[in-house]
Each structure stands twice: as structure tokens, then as C-alpha cells.
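User: Can you predict the 3D structure of Ubiqui/menaqui biosynthesis C-methylase UbiE? Sequence below.
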Amino acid sequence: MKVIMNDFASKYDSIIQDPLLRNYYGEKDFYNVGYWLLDTLNQQEACENLMEKLLEFIPEKKGTILDVACGLGATTSHLLKYYSPVDIVGINISTKQLERSRVNAPGCNFILMDAAQLEFEDDLFDNIISVEAAFHFDTRERFLQEAWRVLKPGGNLVLSDIIFESTQWVGDWLVPQKNNVKDTEEYKDVYVKSGFQQVELVDKTNQTWGEYCRHVMLWLREKFLAGKLDEPTFHEYMTVFDGLLNSSVRHYLLVSAKKV
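Assistant: Sure. Here are the predicted C-alpha cells for Ubiqui/menaqui biosynthesis C-methylase UbiE:
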């Protein structure tokens, strides 16, 4: 299992640090599709919007919070608007990403850890957040069981997640087949079976996945027309994002659940 996780981390490192995508993200360290409003100017703002939308699910932002699959630490850094560094823990399976996270969110505690095997004691955290990552985990159900275990009674789990109909465009290595569900009811049932109550699902596919793909494709076209992107690279990336836009993403969900 450790070999598999290291392989996943290595592959994902190459994606998240792709120079062209880093340029699209404004050389900032977010890496998610974001939440697009009518007045959203760029990807950075969209990513900050997504964090704010998720944090709206936590009325009282106090106590401790665990950032699961914290990426390069931009999500963790955003949490510093509401939480003290000593109350924030971020975990990831990539040592390279954790190194960057420590730069982006100084004072926070970052640990190399698998989301499906949380090495924390029971009833430890007041809140858990995970941005666009649960569909990667092996498995989502194991993560939810672990999240329920380490949350304190009354604690909140908030996350954004994606339901795929198939993994044709994203690949089985990115989304384990065991994480596929047929609809939102089956998806919600995984939370209930893991012990969570007050499970709320908000479908924001158009404002997230759809708008992200469209904005990236527009940006690529502008780069190409300005002579800053060669034709083979332009067509390669356009094919990828056109495929993603028209792929089998069924639902992009904002999720809130509570351990009662």
C-alpha cells in the first residue's frame, strides 16, 4: 500500500506543479477548480471563493481544524484568516507538497499521512475540511469513517467532492473504482453509514467544474493568439480540458456533515 501511495503522490506532484497550470493559477499555490461568481476575476479569487463557501458551513470558527489533503498549503493558509496556527493541522501524502505548505502557512502543523488511515486519537478535532480530494482516497468510505472517529462530538466535516460516472478522462489511478456511486442518495448514504448526521449536499457543478474548464480554455486561447503558446501545446491542453468539460462528471458537491 505504501508503494501505491508513493506512486500516486509522485504522479500528482507532476500534475500540480505543471508549469503551464502554475502560470494559469497566477503562480499561486491553490490547485482546485474554485467557485465562480459573476464578478470573479481570476482563478485565485475563485479558489478563495470556494474556501469561503465551505467555511460558511461552520458557523462558529473556533477550536481546532484539520485540513485533509492540504495540497501546497494555500487552503491551509486561507484558514489562518479564522484560526490560530497552533489550532491548524494539515496532512498530505506528498513530502514535496508538505514542504511548500510549511512555507505558505507558517506555524501550522503539517504531517505526512494517509487520509484513509488517520493517525490521530479519537475525538481530537473540532472541525475537518477537505477541498476536492475525497474522490482520490482509497477509499472515500474509509476516510469518512476515520473523519467521524477523530472529530469531537458536535464537530463539523466540510468538503467539496466530485461524483464521476466513469473515470475515462481522469483515470482510475486518480479515482479508485470503489469511490464511484450511482447518485447523490447513494453518496449521502456513505456518510450516514459512517456515523454522520445532518448531512447536507449542495450541487454547484456549473459554478465550479464547468466554469473552471471554460475559463482555462479561454485563457489557453488568449495565450495562443498572443503568441505565448505554441500550436502543439495549445491543442494538447485544449483537448484535455475539452474532454474534462464534457466528461462524465455528474455532480460537484459542497458537503456538510456533523458528528452528533
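The two ends are 32 Å apart (CA to CA). Residues 2 and 114 are 10 Å apart (CA to CA).
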